[in-house]
Amino acid sequence: MQNNQKKNLWSFNFSTMALVLIPVSIGINYVGKLFAQTLRLPLWLDSIGTILAGILAGPWVGAISGGINNAIYGLTISPVSFAYGITSIAIGITAGVMARMGFVKSMKRAVIMGLVIAGISTVVSTPINIIFWGGQTGNIWGDALFGILRSANWPVWLASGLDELAVDLPDKIATTIIAFIIYQGLPKRITVLFEES
Amino acid sequence: MRSLSLYVKRDSLIHKIDPFTKIIYVFVSVISPFILPTLIFSTSLTLINLLFLLLGRVVKKVLPIISFVFIIILTIFIIQGMFYDANQTELFSLFNLNFYVEGILYAARISVRAINVLLAFSLLILTTPPTEMIESLVRRGMPAKLGYIMHSVLQIIPMMSSNASIIMDAQRARGMETEGSLWVRIKAFIPLIGPLVMSSLVNTHERSIALEVRGFSAATQKTFLHQEKVPGGMKQLRIFFLLFLAAVLAWRLVL
Amino acid sequence: MKKITINNLSYKYSLAENKALNNISLEVEKGDFIGVVGPNKAGKSTLCKSLVGLIPHFYKGEFEGEILIDNLNTLNSSIAELSLKVGLVFQNPFNQISGAKLSVYDELAFGLENNGLGREEMITRIDKYLNLMDLNEVKDNNPFELSGGQMQKLAIASIMALKPDVFVLDEPTSQLDPQGTEEVFKAVSRLREENLTVILVSQKLNKLADYANKILFLNQGEIAAYDNTAAVFSRNDLEQMGMGAPIYTEIARELGLKNEKNQYPIRKSELKEMLVAKYGKNIG
Q1: Alpha carbons B150 and A147: distance in angstroms, whole number
Q2: Poorest-confidence range of B223-232, C47-56, C268-277?
Q3: pLDDT in the model for residue A3
Q4: Nearest CB partner across the interface for C63, out of A1, A23, A197
Q5: What's the burial of B129, exposed, middle or buried (CB within 10 Å: 0-12/13-18/19+)?
Q6: How much is the pLDDT for A11?
Q7: Edge-to-edge strand order for the sheet containing C197-201?
């Protein structure tokens, strides 16, 4: 009984493996952030798990991982993160789609994937920043840039977008590279279970 | 080990209200000021939330939750006060920097709205055990598997962070440098997170099997060990909240 | 009465080069306690996973032949349906905790809720198996805070609460300390008292000799021996096949002590009896 069906990219029927992966990926997001704080890195590194979930089990699982990640944060640590759930969902979807397009085959491609994820994250976060905080991100360096650009009469959306991008670009590229390294290190017998189910 | 939660056990009126009613309340309270963005309206809703937090005897617990937004709110007042597009009327001047009425009012509007969101959610989070909140949603049609994921996250985060500190200590004991230049600290990241992530990803395999053999994918309608306690009058209360939201919408459309 | 019938079962995992199971056929009677032994890669775990339907429903790969539990073909039933007939407990106790429940008591309800049992019935069953597995004292604890042995007993109780007729245990003590091992074997003896059909994979031959009425010896995916416990352990070619025997059997073999069936004793009590019979009471 050979199972040769090619997995549909957008298949909405989750396997138990995929479901169990979601809480684990949210835990990974959490410890990523924790280690980044402990090591005092100038990055968040809080979406490694969401990107891994997308790579391993596809865009839907990536999206759910991102969405629930922020919902749980919202319910337990900081309610604001609810609003940024949309950003996390977009990151998970992008990682899932790009992984299926072959962007986890080499480090070079993974860096490109990181660039795209940073761009998408910026585009999605900026309107939320504007609605919620009048355009700021809460990151000192990014907000300094925002202040300078606004004083020079740049439009809010552009100043806010650059504020977000200044923060996202290094963070999301680093995050994607880390997720890629971990993915490469996983035993094949495990990754195949995600792919075939 | 404890589960991830900010729930504070108290004997109060707010604690007795069932999770679903509170969820509806939070939804209405959070979304209304976005529909009707006037300062007076958001301020009244914020005061109502503060009153409920008092009734729930959890006001002190709110402070750490909202303290982190004070800095950002301060910078919102500074930046918008100086650079808001509609700035016209000068309010005051500080070290040659001009602050305007329009910008300050705009900053006040978004700040109060943000604080309102935080207070409304805090009310829910501080007075409702997360497991009861999730279960009340599953009872009302949220997929049980989504419920499983959320329950599981609440357990996995404290577990993984305690494992994280064990690994941190172990690696330090083996001489790993976790202090020093940025490059040294960056290099420490992968050896720290790698083993933890690998083992938890590999464990997903056996955990899935364990769930499967306990009927996780059963087509049967799921049942609940615990019964839900809903005090009388809650149905009316829920309808009242939704009518309020409808009124806000109507107000906005008419004006 | 036949409980399990396996006909020409073969299975190859995706990515694997060799078959994990190769043309296995055997029958298990209701109430049998089968001890399964064999070296690494013998196919023991694969057999366990096949009995509960994880193969072919969870693991894709090449599946041939059939397994019938009573008259239910595992190929045509879902894992969830099968979980009410065949239960599985495996090595790592930690990974068998659902992760969704905050207390031992609630953890026991997990499988019952999934299967849609009524509340009263759930409570009755939970109380029964909490007692049977000596978990009453820890019923309010977080499942992850239990000792390894307690966690494994919780896994066993959670499966028992589903009331399967067949209980499959895949090396349930291999990751436990001696005390945990002892606790789990005590729990296994309770299974026998409940009159279940049990399939137990274990390297602890002395324990198997105590409990199992039959031994299935697998080697490289094939059946090397399947017979009554004493008959298998009395074989002269055990060493060539890479297998040992219980300590009392080894002693009897050294002494050349065989019983009337021309078999070596497998348990302490039997060996003692035969020694007394041969050398007189003083030796005991």
Answers
A1: 39
A2: C268-277
A3: 38
A4: A1
A5: middle
A6: 46
A7: C86-89, C166-170, C197-201, C33-37, C214-219, C222-228
A20:B207 CB<8 A: yes
**Any chain C CB within 8 A of the CB of A195?**
no
Interchain contact, B223 vs C83, CB within 8 Å: no
Q: Which residues contact residue B148 at a Cβ distance below 8 angstroms, ignoring those fewer than 6 apart?
A: A19, B211, B216, C98, C100
Q: What is the DSSP string of A41-101?
A: -SS----HHHHHHHHHH-HHHHHHHHHHHHHHHHHHT-GGGGTTHHHHHHHHHHHHHHHHT
What gap in Å lies between CA C199 and CA C169, rounded to an integer? 6
* pLDDT level of residue A10 (50, 70, 90 thresholds): very low
> Does the structure show a pLDDT above 70 at A13?
no
CA nearest A16 in B: which residue? B208
pLDDT at res. C17: 92
Residue-wise pLDDT for B130-143, tens only, equals 899 999 999 998 89
Q: What's the average model confidence in pLDDT over B30-59?
A: 94
Can you name the residues that pair with C33 across neighbouring β-strands?
Answer: C198
In angstroms, the CA C40 to CA C35 distance is 16
CA distance B17 to C55: 47
**What's the rounded mean pLDDT across residues A109-137?**
93
Full DSSP string of C140-177: TS-GGGS-HHHHHHHHHHHHHTT--SEEEEESTTTTS-
Chain A residues inside the 8 Å CB shell of B162: none
Class of domain C2-229: alpha beta
Q: What's the first-to-final CA gap in chain A, in angstroms?
A: 15
* A189 to C13: CB separation less than 8 angstroms, yes or no: yes
Q: How confident is the model at residue A7 (pLDDT cuts 50, 70, 90)?
A: very low
CATH, range A16-129+175-196: 1.10.1760
Q: Is there a contact between B82 and A151 if contact means CB atoms under 8 Å apart? A: yes
Whether A47 and A88 have beta carbons less than 8 Å apart is answered as: yes
Q: The pTM is what?
A: 0.88
Q: Sign of dihedral through CA atoms B112, B118, B120, B123?
A: negative
Q: Cis omega before residue C265 (within 30°)?
A: no
Single-letter amino acid code for the residue at A170: P
| C38 within 8 A of C218, measured Cβ to Cβ | yes
Host H or E run for residue C201:
strand C197-201
Shortest CB distance from C92 goes to which of B155, B206, B208?
A: B206
Q: What is the mean pLDDT of residues B182-208?
A: 92
* Residue C201 β-bridge partners: C36, C170
Burial of C119-140, coded b for 16+ CB within 10 Å and e otherwise, reads eeebeebbeebbebbebeebbe
Chains that touch C (3 or more CB pairs under 8 A): A, B
Among chain A residues, the shortest Cα distance to B34 is held by: A131
Report which of residues A118 and B171 the model is more confident about: A118
Mutate to test the interface with C, among B2, B3, B213 (most CBs of C within 10 A): B213
DSSP letter at B160 equals H
Average pLDDT over residues C185-209: 90
The token pair that represents B174 in the structure block: 């083996």
Which tokens hold the place of A30? 């959490």
Domain boundaries, chain C: 2-229, 246-284
In chain C, the largest separation of any two C-alpha atoms, in whole Å, equals 62
What is the spatial distance between Cα C36 and Cα C186, in angstroms, rounded to a whole number? Answer: 18
Q: Measured between CB atoms, does B211 come within 8 Å of chain C?
A: yes
For chains A and C, CB pairs below 8 A equal: 19
ipTM of the complex: 0.92
Statement: residue A166 has pLDDT above 60: yes
Which chains are adjacent to chain B, needing at least 3 Cβ pairs under 8 Å? A, C
